[in-house]
């Protein structure tokens, strides 16, 4: 079915492909954060367990919004681990690091997603997709606040 939202097919494809990288990176970050939520140990267990739980739930909501935006553009959202691994700027963590290493990894990952969202904003706005641009501003704000909190814990 034809998508008539004021963006031509090339613009919609460009935006969807850029958003797919943010989707994949956000999904991998959500999975990593959930793993850290399950596996954190030590004297800061309770506050970190709660913090990581809130973070992965927020990321899960963001993933859904990004995927739905890709669908609104008339394209399929990536949905496999293979696709996510290929598209993500966030590396998965297969081990169980100590709590401080978890914080440092999540900080680096949130900062990487901020940089990706910033670049994506420029791409999508460059093809006229202001709605996706607004979404990227929101993502930068959310990841920026989380990065600040993580950075503060490491200081």
SSE arrangement:
Layout: H1 9-39, H2 45-72, H3 81-87, H4 99-126, H5 130-154
Describe the structure concisely.
The chain has 155 residues and is mainly alpha-helical. The chain has helices spanning 9-39, 45-72, 81-87, 99-126, 130-154.
**Helix and strand composition category:** mainly alpha
Proportion of helical residues = over 70%
**Sheet having the most strands:** none
Percent of residues in beta strands?
under 5%
Give the number of DSSP strands: 0
Order of helices and strands: HHHHH
The count of helical stretches stands at: 5
Mean pLDDT: 97
Name the shape in a single word.
elongated
| Rg value | 16 Å
Question: Which segments are poorly predicted (pLDDT under 50) over 5 or more consecutive residues?
Answer: none
Distance between the termini: 53 Å
């Amino acid at each position: 079915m034809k998508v008539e939202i004021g963006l031509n097919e090339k613009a919609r494809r460009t935006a969807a492909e850029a958003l797919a990288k943010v989707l994949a990176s956000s999904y991998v970050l959500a999975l990593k954060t959930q793993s850290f939520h399950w596996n954190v140990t030590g004297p800061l267990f309770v506050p970190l367990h709660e913090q990581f739980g809130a973070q992965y739930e927020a990321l899960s909501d963001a993933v859904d919004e990004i995927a739905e935006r890709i669908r609104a553009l008339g394209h399929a959202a990536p949905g496999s681990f293979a696709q996510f691994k290929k598209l993500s700027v966030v590396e998965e963590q297969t081990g169980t690091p100590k709590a401080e290493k978890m914080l440092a990894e999540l900080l680096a990952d949130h900062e990487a997603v901020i940089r990706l969202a910033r670049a994506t904003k420029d791409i999508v706005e460059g093809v006229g997709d202001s709605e996706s641009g607004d979404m990227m501003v929101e993502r930068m704000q959310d990841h920026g606040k989380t990065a600040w909190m993580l950075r503060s814990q490491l200081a």
